[in-house]
TrEMBL record:
GO terms for cellular component: nucleolus. This is NLE domain-containing protein. It comes from Chara braunii (Braun's stonewort). It is found in: Nucleus, Nucleolus. Keywords: Nucleus, Repeat, WD repeat. Its main location: nucleus. The keyword Zinc-finger does not apply. InterPro entries: NLE, WD40/YVTN_repeat-like_dom_sf, WD40_G-protein_beta-like, WD40_PAC1, WD40_repeat_CS, WD40_repeat_dom_sf, WD40_rpt. Belongs to the NLE1/RSA4 family. WD repeats lie at residues 169-210, 211-243, 254-300, 301-341, 421-462, 463-504, 505-538. The lineage of its organism: Eukaryota, Viridiplantae, Streptophyta, Charophyceae, Charales. The keyword Repeat applies. GO terms for biological process: ribosomal large subunit assembly.
Length: 538
């Protein structure tokens, strides 16, 4: 018989548990004698030899737990599964004092990873950080059925929480309404009620360029995923293109919308580099696709009956728009045809988020800060990042509404929602998937931030601490931290492992409307009613 895991030899006196895998055979060793066999037999040794267990083929997994002559507690029958729910290997008979280090060694062996990778383990959406038995007891987890342990690769880098304001930068003469880091984290853009877009140098934390042109508030800004262009949308109904390196306009305004611009999204870099096309949504109810090379509106999509509140360009190529008409439309971009309409909300749909949004935003740029020599190289890198992030399931989308609810969808696959997510007591203002797609965070006027499972839509935790409506949220690139901005003039950093407040960041003199965490994880930028930009770092 070939065991995949777990041979328990209780008549032994090992000083600590051993998890061991050998390519030719597996053996449990007495750590004092450091003796082992590689002939496919396992010799149980303590003060005396109790027996030789034969019959193992090469590649056995063995775990031995020091519990004296008898087990002290009942073991747990468990199964490992990835975040998409696919089970790995056979059922496991786990001792109560097994923890993440032992599971990580086992998992790397089961997956046959040549390079040992770090993993995080979850039970009912709670991270396992200590011994299994203590976790089950603390969280009252039933073991009457097979315990499902979900594993997920950790980011190979770790982001430190921002703890202090490193710079307060004045320049805008009215409220800062939007902030956004460039995909490579070298620049920061801000849009303001003073009608200007400003660009800031992150390395020196100083103003770089002022970009005038709009005749009314700048409501939204968006970087192209290759970092070559910045587009801004204003209360004046115009869209303007900027060269962020030079801080100059690329031609005149792009006109077509009859009312103010509410949202902008670029075509993903893995579809086209250099990035040329973006989509805009407006209070006039239209969704428009623009080509920056010819500086024209190529397609106008007129299906909404009220204001468009948010637009997204999916990694699978489709465009999604939400509206005050309570609907969400899925569009095919080449002809502007309506693919399907998603219904369920009973009031305005305010916000959308895509599960692969982080890699769509950052294109080919990651924590390695690699420089690319060609457009083809950038496109290939963006494609690899997108495919890794997406996995084998369709892209997911979450919507948040004035009806206090959220819905989880697979918009490119079905018009039926995967889950209806309830719990907020006031309107949902902003939703955001974690960079790995594992979690959804939501910000609400009920003064709370909520955490949800990104695959099932199941409620996980509530973060309370703000004393005013929460306007915006942003994830750290390693998915371990979340920052929120509020009407109460503070930022708060939340720890995903402990599900508690990590840092309280006062400093703004008034409401904080906008926040963004740089893709490289080094800094957080915030802006609001006090007209200043603040940069935060560890």
């Amino acid at each position: 018989m070939v065991h995949t895991l777990l041979l328990k030899v209780w008549q032994s006196t090992w000083t600590r548990k051993v998890l061991w895998r050998c390519r030719k055979a597996t053996a449990i060793v007495n750590e004092e004698s450091n003796r082992q066999r590689s002939d496919g037999r396992i010799r149980a040794r303590g003060e005396k030899e109790t027996g030789i267990l034969k019959g193992h083929a090469p590649g056995v997994f063995v775990m031995a737990i020091p519990t004296g002559s008898r087990p002290q507690s009942k073991n747990v029958i468990a199964r490992l599964a990835d975040v998409e729910g696919k089970s790995l290997g056979p059922q496991l008979d786990l001792p109560h004092d097994v923890g993440p280090p032992e599971l990580e060694v086992l998992l790397n062996s089961l997956l046959q990873n040549e390079d040992k990778l770090p993993y995080t383990f979850y039970i009912d959406d709670r991270e396992l950080v200590g011994e299994l038995g203590a976790h089950l007891l603390e969280h009252n987890v039933s073991v009457e059925t097979i315990l499902k342990i979900v594993y997920q690769p950790q980011a190979v880098f770790r982001i430190r929480p921002v703890t202090r304001c490193s710079a307060t930068i004045s320049g805008h003469s009215e409220a800062v309404l939007s902030v956004s880091f460039s995909p490579d984290s070298t620049q920061l853009a801000s849009g303001s009620g003073d009608t200007t877009v400003r660009l800031w140098d992150i390395s020196t934390q100083t103003p770089l360029h002022t970009c005038p042109g709009h005749t009314n508030w700048v409501l939204c800004i968006s970087w192209s995923p290759d970092g070559a262009l910045l587009v801004s949308g204003g209360m004046d109904g115009d869209l303007r293109l900027w060269n962020p390196k030079l801080g100059i306009a690329v031609g005149g305004p792009l006109k077509g919308h009859k009312k103010w611009i509410t949202s902008i999204a670029w075509e993903p870099a893995h579809i086209q580099v250099p990035c040329r096309r973006f989509v805009s949504g407006s209070k006039d109810g239209d969704v428009r696709i623009w080509d920056t090379a010819v500086r024209k509106c190529m397609v106008t999509m007129t299906g909404h009956t009220l204001a468009v509140t948010c637009v997204k360009w999916c990694g699978e190529g489709l465009i999604i728009s939400s509206s005050r008409d309570c609907s969400i439309n899925v569009w095919e971009p080449s002809q502007g045809k309506l693919v399907r309409q998603l219904k369920g909300h009973g009031h305005w749909v305010n916000t959308l988020a895509i599960s692969s949004e982080f890699v769509l935003r950052t294109g080919p740029f990651d924590h390695t800060k690699k420089k690319y020599k060609s457009a083809d190289e950038m496109k290939e890198a963006a494609l690899q990042r997108y495919e890794t992030a997406k996995g084998s399931v369709p892209e997911r989308m979450v919507s948040g509404s004035d009806d206090f609810t959220m819905f989880l969808w697979e918009p490119t696959a079905s018009k039926q929602s995967k889950a209806r997510m309830t719990g907020h007591q006031q309107l949902v203002n902003h939703v955001y998937f974690s960079p790995d797609g594992r979690w959804i965070a939501s910000a609400s006027f009920d003064k709370s931030v909520r955490l949800w499972d990104g695959y099932s839509g199941k409620f996980v935790a509530t973060f309370r601490g703000h004393v005013g409506p929460v306007y915006q949220i942003s994830w750290s690139a390693d998915c371990r931290l979340l920052v929120s901005a509020s009407k109460d003039s503070t930022l708060k950093v939340w720890d995903m492992r402990t599900r508690k407040l990590k840092e309280d960041l006062p400093g703004h003199a008034d409401e904080v409307f906008a926040v963004d965490w740089s893709p490289d994880g080094e800094k957080v930028a915030s802006g609001g009613k006090d007209r200043v930009l603040k940069l935060w770092m560890h």
